[in-house]
Amino acid sequence: MRLIVISNRLGVTASVNSGGEIVFAPSAGGLASALNSYLQTGRYKELGIDDYLWVGWPGMEIAPELRDGVREKLLKEFKCWPVFLPDEVMDRFYSGFCNRTIWPLFHYFPMLTSYDDREWECYNDVNNFFALSLAEIIKSDDIIWIHDYQLMLLPELIREKFKESAVGYFHHIPFPSFEIFRLLPGAWRAKLMNGLLGSDLAGFHTVDYTHHFFKCALRISNLENNLGKIAHGSRVTKADTFPIGIDFDKFNDSSQLEDVRSEIDKLRSSFAGKKIILSIDRLDYTKGIINRLDGYRAFLERHPELHEKVILLSVIVPSRVKVPQYQAMKKQTEEMIGEINGKYGSIEWTPVIYQYKSISFAHLAALYTLSDIALVTPLRDGMNLVAKEYIACKKNTDGVLILSEMAGAANELTDAVIMNPNNRESYVGALEKAMNMPYGERRARLDSMRRRISEYSVCEWAEDFLGSLLGVYNARLALRSKYLNPERVAKLAGDYARASKRLIMLDYDGTLVDFCPLPENASPDDELLSILKKLAADEKNEVAIISGRGRHTLEKWLGGVKMDLMAEHGAWVKTAAGDWHATGVFNTCWKKEVTALMRKFAVRLSASFVEEKDYSVAWHYRACDIELARERADDLRDALGHLARREGLDIINGSRLIEVRNAGVNKYNGALNFMKSDDYGFILFAGDDATDEDIFRSISSESYTIKIGAGQTAAGWSLNSPAELLELLKKLSSAD
User: Fold this and answer.
1) CA 567 to mean position of chain CA atoms
2) Low-confidence spans in the chain with pLDDT less than 70
3) Can you cite a GO biological process for this protein (predicted)?
């Protein structure tokens, strides 16, 4: 079993040295660093994974005649498989839809978001090209792990070609609320959601992001989640929270390295006697750099007594240097730093020390170790690993972490000083608290956060995700082992042909026909009626429809077929040669009160309606706004509770309906009417929902019980859809 890691960029980046030779160096960035740290440990083998392969763009355009050599070197030396794309295409892809649409929108900057059709097409093209490249290398037992927003379409594209593969997706930036996500054009947002739903497991940094994903699946794809799992078609996608960690030992032990100690000594002598506030960011509008500088300026205004006693070290790593917006941001930042230093500084003291460059690990670790305060205040951030790296370096020194509540890390690092980065006074208050915090409190907060990030490092994060992915995958395999493939269908057909007496029981909605927003539109078509008539005409067969539908509807739709009918979950039965009769004496005194209550809720929820049957009443909300419908459904269940207990009624939660009926009336008891004989040589029952599970459990294991659709079941076998069941029934109807 092999792990296939897929990201926009490989874990190594290609460049051309002074001699014209293509060389490779580790890629920068949190994602690449995190994955490299985990893969190099080899701990994936503890999960039964033998090896790994990293797939992505190598960082530069490779001439066609050099590609074989580059691919061979990457594969042999780095376990990487390059996706070769021209620089122009990658620039249009990455600088276009990725960073002009998804990046600003998902970080809650809709005013900066572009909606360009050509950039959307390029995003589709690159995702498709990744899928074509993967088709060359994916094996049936590979575990596929896709990373981040650049490849949101890829899970479904892989699923189309490799239906049985385990596919996981991890989203490294914020996943926005539905109100933000819906700003995308309808076709775009639907396709992005469908792409993510191609995965077996979708992972997010925080519970909020996971809930946003569920909300978008509900509102955009009309798919509900049940205990964190979304059933759609024949598949189930699980979504869960996995806050990424860091290589804790690397930062924790960094002060023992000679080059780090040398940097610490230099910095200590430079800033002796001053409180160091550290700020490290990549140049980006999401990081809140201007807000932070303004907050620091307000702090200096408020506390002149701290002048010459405190400094802000602002390290900004260059990013997207060719983009005009980022050039303007750099200019604004430098102007503000100049204003602060000009107004408050002196020959002896510079309030803000500014560095605009990438820095070495040794310099970074030294800054973390010596700084008294880390000011990590993004306006929005998926996680923010700077906060965790700072804490990890505090093995022998103390400090205070000031952390934006808009960073994903705030959900874990609750002992940080949490603040709102949009409020000037929040900076002043947080800095005052940090400056005045007693040593004992500082140390206690640090120790608590250090325990958390040491216990859930990048390795635990990766193992947590991959272990969960394998769990979902194995559960799917267990369900897939019940699938009626052609070989099993052939055996079923053989058993059917050999039997001299057969019982075929079939649910209707969701089993023989797909669900419809309006139940009256789910009438059988000519093909279904033809199949049922052929089955019923065979003298060896007894065919029965077991449904929650009212008897008048079943009579209208299926009364022309000589077969048994069971309506209202067993309250009414009609044999092929007889008339309708009630299976018991049922109390109906409660119906008027229940119907009146349901009608009140129908008025409160547009497009919902009440269906009144002889012995039951149902409130349908399939065509409604699903979120409001779920709230109303909860309210209705509560309102019905006392009445149900008083009258001895069952409240049934169906597929987007609530039904009330007499206790003891159910499909299982109704089906007993058809299973009185014990001389059937062949029994088949097919159903799709929870009301069919009792029958699945009760029928002999030698019989054929078939669940239609995805999900856990007691049935012995499964099919994906009503269409597949019809194909099976057609085969049986033509068997003789």
Assistant:
1) 39
2) 736
3) trehalose biosynthetic process
